[in-house]
Amino acid sequence: MKMIQNDDPAMNIQARQILTVSQLNRRIRLLLESQYPGLWVEGEISNFKKHSSGHIYFTLKDENAQISAAFFSQHQRGLKFELEDGLKVLAFCRVSIYEARGQYQLYVERIEPKGVGALQLAFQQLKEKLEKEGLFREERKRLIPRFPGTVGIVTSPTGAAIHDILNVVNRRFCGTQLLLYPVKVQGEGAAAEIAAAIETMNRLEEPEVLIVGRGGGSLEDLWAFNEEIVARAVYHSRIPVISAVGHETDWTICDLVADLRAPTPSAAAELVVSSRLELEQRVRDYGARLRDALLNLCKDYRERLKDLAGSAAFRQPRFLLDQFAERTDELTRRLQTSFKTWHALKQHGLQNFTGRLNALNPLGILERGYSVTFGPAGEVLKSVKGAAVGDRIMTKLYHGQLVSEIVKVEKGELHGGKK
Fold it and tell me: Is residue 326 part of a domain?
């Protein structure tokens, strides 16, 4: 018998190499990581999600394909802008596989916006966010005091900004008190120091106005004044804030939130400290205007007094008093005559009314010799039908009354001839 040799490795039990799923995923991971340890991938972000741990997960896609990506929090420290769906980016990453699920994905270590600088994008995103919240509203911005006794300054103690401010203040009005809170104005931690300084100045409640700023520089140098923490500190400040970031052409977020923006620190100092010479000249002008106004007022009152002195009231006061007395007597006579006429009319009306009342009085007929007889029960007797022999009756006369006893009742003709 001749045996047939089977060369199929899948059927050859001794030649088989069997891997577990975990071993296979590990080999694929090592292969991918060795082949693609670091590369730039371009795509559009979708399915963006930020975990409570700070890790970010999203999908990077183009017109024809997509791949999952993870961006862990330890790699996000230098990220200035916010990731969001629809944003086109360049991601520096390594390619690997998540062994537990066998999922091929990118592990991002750095990310940049495509077509616009990261700082510019971060500036635009924060500007849109704070504008929606109302931090830039003009109606909430306060007036800067004209003559502050104390000016708070938040800047570097060694930079050009503080020297420019000191020169302007000493030249214009050396009596102004300056309160400096030294901070870093660029680099790591600068924004936090600036925000803390603004909060501390508000707790002190000594400054009447704050100047927050620095000298000029690049966008990177000025970036601390574009941080959200600084913007919110300026917004919540009870003391009016002048933003004096020395970059005349471009605006920072701090400029937009502040109550007033000055193009340079020197300009900020000129805004809060009035010139002594200007004040002295203004005082002289006000003094001259006040003196002229008082002279004109005195002249006007002198003319009015002269006119009053020449009037009839001052020349013949007795004549005016006599006229007033005569007028008073005339009015008194007219009042007395009117009262007498009114009183007579009222008295005549009262007499007429009294006569009418007496005519209607049922007892008034007694005065003419008539009488009224009342029965035993006190009722008025109109007929003999209501009387009986032996009844006691009372007859009312005009003067007094009679009490009688009936001894006889005679029925006669009734009024109208009826029985």
Answer: no
Question: Are the CB atoms for 109 and 79 separated by under 8 Å?
Answer: no
> What distances in angstroms separate CA 389 from CA 384, 407, 419, one per listed residue?
10, 5, 20
Judged by DSSP in three states, 411 sits in coil
| H-run or E-run covering 176 | none
Q: How far apart are CA 30 and CA 26, in angstroms?
A: 6
Q: What is the domain range of residue 282? A: 275-312
CATH number at residue 196: 3.40.50.2300
Global confidence as pTM = 0.49
Asked if residue 173 and residue 250 are part of one domain, the reply reads: yes
With DSSP H G I counted as helix, E B as strand and the rest as coil, what are the percentages for the chain, rounded to 5? 45, 20, 35
- Say whether 311 sits in a helix, a strand or coil: coil
- Phi–psi pair at 330, nearest 5 degrees: -60, -45
Q: Of 270, 294, 321, which residue constitutes the final position of a domain?
A: 270
pLDDT digits (tens, 9 = 90+) for 119-133: 777 788 888 888 899
Task: Answer yes or no: is pLDDT of 193 > 90.
Answer: yes
Residues 6+ apart with CB under 8 A from 78: 110
The pLDDT-based confidence of 14 (bands split at 50, 70, 90) is low
- Return the C-alpha torsion angle 145, 149, 152, 153, nearest 10: 90
How would you label 382-394 residue by residue, b for 16+ Cβ within 10 Å and e otherwise? eeeeeeeeeeebe
Provide CB contacts within 8 A for 123, sequence distance 6+: 226, 253
Whether the Cβ atoms of residue 141 and residue 113 lie closer than 8 Å to each other: no
**Domain count for the chain:** 4
The reply to whether 320 falls in a domain is no
What's the rounded Cα separation, in Å, for the pair 241 and 256? 11
